[in-house]
Amino acid sequence: MRVLTAIDLLGVQRFIFSSNRLRDVVTGSYLVDWSTSCNGALDSLAPERDILLAGGGNALLEFDSMENAQEFTARYTRRLHDEVPGLEIVVAHKAFQIGGLARALQEIQIDLARRKTARLPSAPLLGLSVTAACGEAGLPAVGFDEAEKTVPLSKSVLQRRKRRDEANRHWSAYLEGLERFAFPTELDDLGRTLGDTSLIGVVHADGNGVGAKIKEWLIQKSEQQVDDDTVRREYREWSQAIDQLGQDALCALVERICQSSEERNGAQNKRKSRWVTGTPSRLEIELKPSEGGWMLPLRPIVLGGDDLTFVCDGRIALDLAETVLSAFEGVELPHLGEISACAGVAVVRVHTPFAKAYRLAEGLCASAKKMRKKERLSGCALDWHIGMPRPGQGVERIRDRQYRIDECRLTCRPLLLGSTKEDSGTWRWLSKTLLGDTDEGLRGKAWCGRRSKAKALAELVREGPEGVGRAMTAWRAVNKRLSLPQGIAEDGFFAKSRTPLLDAVELLDLHLVLEPSARDRGKQEEKP
After folding, report:
1. Omega into 414 within 30° of 0, i.e. cis?
2. Region of residue 86 (phi > 0: left; psi between -120 and 50: alpha; otherwise: beta)
3. pLDDT tens digits, residue range 220-266?
4. Backbone phi, then psi, for 30, in 5-degree steps?
5. What is the mean pLDDT of residues 13-34?
6. Helices (H), 59-203
7. Are the C-beta atoms of residues 488 and 457 closer than 8 Å to each other?
8. Fewer C-beta neighbours within 10 Å, C or N terminus of the chain?
9. In which band, very low, low, confident or very high, does the pLDDT at 305 lie, cut at 50, 70 and 90?
10. In degrees, to the nearest 5, what angle opens at C-alpha 503 toward C-alphas 501 and 509?
11. Dihedrals φ, ψ of 10, to 5°?
């Protein structure tokens, strides 16, 4: 008999965001990836041929006997205890007969879920005789950082600081061929503009229904009694394809920012500066200099299969979220079929606690998934929110209170991504048509000289379709060019029940559309 061993990391978000320092969060994310990586904690403990899945906080291995599986587990958990303190895991073993791999893969997931709910909660005695608290996580301190001798730190944070360079090298692999650029290690280096309100965007993207597709695949292989070698081969093929999809999405982000940047002569001593440009030009972002190069206004935090989280300058957060979703559009995974994704974007003040901002972005992503499922829609979708809700006040409650007048909804969020900018009621239509620089767009020639009227739409929508319709009629009597783009009625509403105008006005001075990358231009040319 052979044995399957499944590993699942618990409390990953709690572990990653236990500190509010960007460099500690990034290193914590790297340690999670390292814990279930063939080149990390699994290296030298198990032959690569025995590993079916490794990454994204999960691992699945196959052994010749239960004794070998238990011996591996003992050495593996000891290694995590020593090198990644504070990270909890659950391990399950499942013996199976030759030819029963597909069924064993189904059953071990059930065993793993049962172990999660039945386990005793961890309550380590961390603070006996300790009087100093960690300056970052609040846990009992055990030492000091070599660079910051005055700040006491816990064992978990100290381990992160020791492996900071290793984590930076891991992420720098996504800048191959772009040696003049670097990912920032501090939030202040994300491209903030002096004198402006400093906002960052926390973006969380996740694939739609991937778990259900995997479950269907397992049921199919089990019912068809497919041989174990075929199951192993296909399992590795689709798991590697999912990992590659996440990596391609991150590379698309980097490519888009780098191709939208340009060097200029600075005002002082003709110093060179580099800017990220787009539409409108007044929202351009000046990049911070680094050693021999420039800091990107982007910092990836979590990358695990179809799960991607990053932080960026708040002005490009929605544009980069669209870039990620575009990377998922129309992708066919081997043996699983076509995949799509949803994204949540939390635009918050720069020093908002990371854990809270991430939970908001995760909740917005779930909101987009819920809308897509409820209305039985296909394709990618996204949702966003500007500002941090007060404790106990979720996004749904805010929208019910501030974005609803009688039966009219004053927001269209969440939105489907849409196929083109002519696809009304979608994100691409809102971003490139309603907020576009054409004559009818709010950034176009007809509206740009009448910004007060564009801003007034935010209050007029509260009077309903009639209020917007009366105002548009009066304005058009003076200037016939002043109109709303095709796809929306002259009263600014869809079917007199919901309007995108308030969404657009809130983004008018915040949302920067970058120049399309070579990859995006290629996709646009392929579309009929």
Report:
1. yes
2. left
3. 999 998 999 999 999 999 999 999 999 999 999 999 999 999 888 76
4. -60, -40
5. 90
6. 66-83, 101-118, 155-162, 164-172
7. no
8. C
9. confident
10. 100
11. -110, 150
Alpha-carbon span 310 to 203, nearest angstrom: 5
Q: Token digits for 66?
A: 């239960």
User: Exposed (0-12), middle (13-18) or buried (19+): which is 1, by Cβ within 10 Å?
Assistant: exposed
HEC sequence for 6-48:
EEEEECHHHHHCCCCCHHHHHHHHHHHHHHCCCCCCCCCCCCH
Please report the pLDDT score of residue 414 as a whole number. 96
Q: How far apart are CA 386 and CA 499, in angstroms?
A: 18
Cis peptide leading into 280, omega within 30 of 0? yes
| pLDDT interval class at 130 (50, 70, 90) | low
The CA-CA-CA angle for residues 499, 505, 510, to 5°, reads 135
User: What residue type is 133 in one-letter code?
Assistant: A
Angle at 307 between CA 90 and CA 254, to 5 degrees: 140
Give the distance from CA 488 to its chain's centroid.
Answer: 30
302-317 mean pLDDT: 93
Strands 298-304 and 51-55: unpaired
Taking the C-alpha atoms of residue 260 and residue 408, their distance in angstroms, rounded to an integer, is 39
Contact at 8 Å (CB) between 158 and 83?
no
- Residue 181 pLDDT > 80: yes
Find out whether 339 and 214 touch, Cβ atoms under 8 Å.
no
Q: Give the C-alpha distances (Å, rounded to integers) separating 301 from 121, 128, 512.
A: 27, 33, 22
Place of tokens 């849409």: 418
Residue with the two structure tokens 């991504």 = 417
Q: Which pTM value belongs to this model? A: 0.90
- Look at the block and give the residue holding tokens 């917007």: 468
Quote the CA–CA distance of 79 and 359 in Å, as a whole number: 30
Q: How confident is the model at residue 66 (pLDDT cuts 50, 70, 90)?
A: very high
> Which amino acid does the sequence have at 478?
V
Tens digit of pLDDT for each residue in 185-227? 888 888 766 556 689 999 999 999 999 999 999 999 999 989 9
DSSP assignment of 250-289 equals: HHHHHHHHHHTEEEEE-SSTT-EEEEE-EESGGG-EEPPE
From CA 185, how far away is CA 192, in angstroms rounded? 14
Kindly report the backbone phi and psi dihedral angles of residue 404, in degrees, each rounded to the nearest multiple of 5, phi listed first: -145, 130
Phi-psi region of 85 (alpha: psi -120 to 50; beta: other; left: phi over 0): beta
- Sign for the pseudo-dihedral over CA of 255, 425, 382, 239: negative
Q: Is 294 strand, coil or helix?
A: strand
Task: Give dist(CA 57, CA 35) in Å, integer.
Answer: 7
**Torsion from C-alpha of 44, 50, 53, 55, nearest 10 degrees:** 0
The whole-angstrom separation of Cα 281 and Cα 222 is 57
Q: Give me the amino acid identity at 174.
A: Y
pLDDT value, residue 290:
85
Q: Angle, to 10 degrees, between the axis of helix 155-162 and the axis of helix 22-35?
A: 90
